[in-house]
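I had to read the description of the data format several times before I understood it. For illustration, here is how one protein appears when written out as sequence plus structure tokens:
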Amino acid sequence: MGERKVINKYYPHDFDPSKIPRRRRPKNGQIKVRMMLPMTLRCAACGEYLGRGTKFNARKEDAAGERYLGAIQVFRFYIRCPRCSAEIAFKTDPGNSDYAVESGATRSTEPWRGAADDGGAAAREGGGDAMAALEGRARAGRREMDADAALEEARSLSARRARVAPAQALESLHNRCRAADRREALRELEQVADEALVKSIRFRNAAGYLKRIDEEDDREDDEDFLAASLVRTVDAKVQNKKRRQGADQPVVIASKRRCTTAAAPAEGEAHDDDLAETSEGKASAGGALQALCCSYDDLSDDEEG
């Protein structure tokens, strides 16, 4: 089994498929098949019973000149009795969905087959139920009415066609042909117009593509450029003004005062100390103002020089 299921097979380098011998079919058209007996038979020579389902190596052939409804093939089978080796022949019966014995044996009675057929007929008729039988007859009546309506419609159509003169039929056919030709011509014209439109359009990746710039677009671009330039100029002026103002302002150096702890003086001494501190503060303030004025004088002298 493993060799049958392989994916690839080895072919030697000197393999020649033309040397493979062809299989020849027998002249009588019979082929050997392995089959099971479809029915119970009794051999006519020795009286041996052959049960249904017994396996045989049979010879199968096409029954020459026999066709069911002119299309379905009828096959014939040949087997041999396992006791006396007498030949038994039977063939298919498509009309009854069964097999028919031809020679060498007789078919045994099969009572269950008749019972099954009777049961199937009873089930088709409604199984003895009056309501089911009535429904079946109603469905059959509707089917007959539909068939009659279809037949009547076919007859009326045939009568209408028979009343049409050959000249009228030819004229109608000619009109349909002309309408089809007109539709085809319109379709061709539309196709030609579409092709011309596509050729007239120049795409961006084309070799001779030229970009056209409108005056309105140029005007809008100039306005945008002027607006951006004006904004940058105003920002530059503001920055320069702030820079000049920062340069003109005096430089003030602030120093932290040291905090010292001392014993609280007496009431008279405290008053004297307050006066001294006030005078010292005024003197320091005057000194700071004098230094600031001197710095301004120095700056003015440098500018003049």
Notes: The beta strands are 31-36, 41-43, 49-50, 55-68, 72-80, 87-93, 98-103, 105-107. The two ends are 118 Å apart (CA to CA). Residues 102 and 272 are 159 Å apart (CA to CA). Confidence is low (pLDDT under 50) at residues 266-271, 299-305.
